[in-house]
Specification:
Protein name: PspA/IM30 family protein
Order of helices and strands: HHH
Largest sheet: none
Structural class: mainly alpha
Number of domains: 1
Strand content: under 5%
CATH architecture: Orthogonal Bundle
Keywords: Coiled coil
């Protein structure tokens, strides 16, 4: 009788653990999806920054007017520098987002493995309880 009570408690504990791990798994999967979305946005931002930085405002200005003043040259160089800086920042942001996505995916995979082990433990406890109840009868 005492063994049955212990097995029931074990089953309850393992079931609660499995429920908690199920919630953790759902959260980890949601985090991974959010990380994928943030990475996609960062990739898009990098593409935009790269396309903006690829243009050469100095050449564009010279084509328009044929002559460019020192002030306009300075301004064009500054804009180009800023655009290149934005491109570099976007590249770093994308790399960080990729790292975050990989970490979130690893956490989701670990949560899935933990949940699977917890489900198996619940099944083992249920089988043990059923076997003990049959013996007790």
């Amino acid at each position: 009788m005492k063994a049955l009570k212990s097995l029931r408690q074990l089953l309850e504990i393992r079931s609660l653990r499995a429920d908690n791990l199920s919630r953790s798994l759902s959260e980890a999967r949601a985090d991974a999806e959010n990380a994928r979305e943030r990475e996609a946005k960062a990739s898009e931002a990098l593409d935009i920054a790269a396309s903006r930085a690829a243009g050469n405002p100095i050449v564009d200005e010279l084509r328009k007017s044929g002559v460019i003043s020192a002030a306009k040259l300075q301004d064009a160089l500054m804009r180009q520098s800023v655009l290149r800086s934005h491109e570099a920042d976007a590249g770093r942001s994308l790399a960080q987002r990729k790292d975050a996505r990989c970490a979130a995916q690893e956490r989701a995979e670990q949560a899935a493995a933990d949940f699977s082990r917890a489900q198996k433990a619940v099944l083992r406890a249920e089988f043990s309880l059923e076997a003990a109840e049959k013996v007790d009868r």
